[in-house]
Design goal:
By secondary structure, the protein is mainly alpha-helical. It is built from 15 helices and no strands. α3 packs across α8 and α6 packs antiparallel against α7. The longest helix is centred in the middle third of the chain and has 22 residues.
């Protein structure tokens, strides 16, 4: 627990989570972590997680060929966050959760993606948010929270048909680090997909922050990731200022009461609402919708 003053009710949700079971209550714990305790942090950590995918040349080459980030980047961003929400809002093993995973599997079925890449990408989706919260959250995650996230991640992967998945957070972290040590390598495709993603980040950021979005994002990359993506080194003072600012935000958040309503992503792509049939690359929607998702 980080030291310092805090709102008298700030730890209500944490104290409740401590009474829960990481397997039986995995969906509730994950919802509380991602939608109540750390909604902004979880989204930022997920964004950094996607950038890690681009450090793997075979992954970035596929993304580069599809052109989705160049031509429909904001839709791709919205769809990614909406899939995560649809899969968890009523629990991953609900009818709604299973329908979402079937939709995701139909999308992925259009590509030849090996299991080792699926395992790595899945690992980034848990390691990114957990490590962001460890560094910049207003408190660290409890052991029961990390295990619940691992349990849900593994179940998500099982519903995708992925074999050989870890069962603990430490297992996912080791998988990610080992894979990156072996496979991280710069290519021009890495750079192109990264630059396209940074343009998306600027497009969805609040207007006053857009001019600095690219530099701030690069400043938050670790060195192996920055080098693999071909991004320019930022001045040490700037990197330090960005990270100090995030830690100052965390201290201020300790003075806030717990969030009472769940955070929900508001997609700009679908101003009048969406269904699962809208989610997926525009170029393949007709094919995806020939049968129910």
């Amino acid at each position: 627990m980080r030291s310092g003053l805090h709102h008298p009710r700030r730890f209500e949700i944490r104290d409740h989570v401590r009474t829960l079971d990481a397997e039986r209550d995995r969906d509730e714990i994950t919802w509380l972590v991602s939608r109540h305790e750390f909604p902004w942090d979880y989204t930022q950590g997920t964004g950094i997680a996607f950038l890690r995918d681009y450090g793997i040349p075979t992954i970035s080459a596929l993304l580069d060929r599809t052109g989705e980030f160049e031509h429909a980047g904001v839709k791709r961003y919205d769809d990614t966050l909406l899939v995560a929400e649809e899969a968890s809002v009523e629990s991953i093993d609900s009818a709604r959760g299973h329908a979402t995973l079937r939709r995701l599997n139909r999308i992925h079925g259009h590509y030849d993606i090996p299991d080792d890449e699926f395992r790595f990408v899945l690992a980034t989706t848990i390691v990114g948010p957990v490590e962001w919260i460890r560094a910049y959250g207003w408190r660290d995650l409890e052991p029961v929270e990390r295990q619940a996230l691992a349990n849900l991640t593994t179940r998500f992967g099982e519903l995708m048909g992925i074999k050989g998945l870890p069962t603990t957070y430490e297992g996912y972290l080791a998988l990610l680090r080992d894979y990156e040590a072996e496979r991280f390598e710069f290519t021009e495709a890495n750079r192109r997909v990264t630059e396209a993603t940074l343009r998306i980040a600027a497009a969805v950021a609040p207007a006053p922050l857009r001019p600095l979005t690219r530099r701030v994002t690069i400043a938050l990359m670790d060195e192996p990731l920055r080098i693999a993506l071909g991004m320019p080194e930022q001045p040490a003072w700037f990197v330090s200022a960005v990270r100090r600012g995030l830690r100052a935000r965390a201290r201020l958040l300790r003075l806030a009461p717990p969030r009472r309503t769940a955070y929900h992503h508001r997609p700009t792509t679908y101003p009048h609402g969406y269904t699962l049939r809208d989610i997926g690359p525009t170029s393949m929607l007709d094919d995806l919708n020939r049968s129910t998702p």
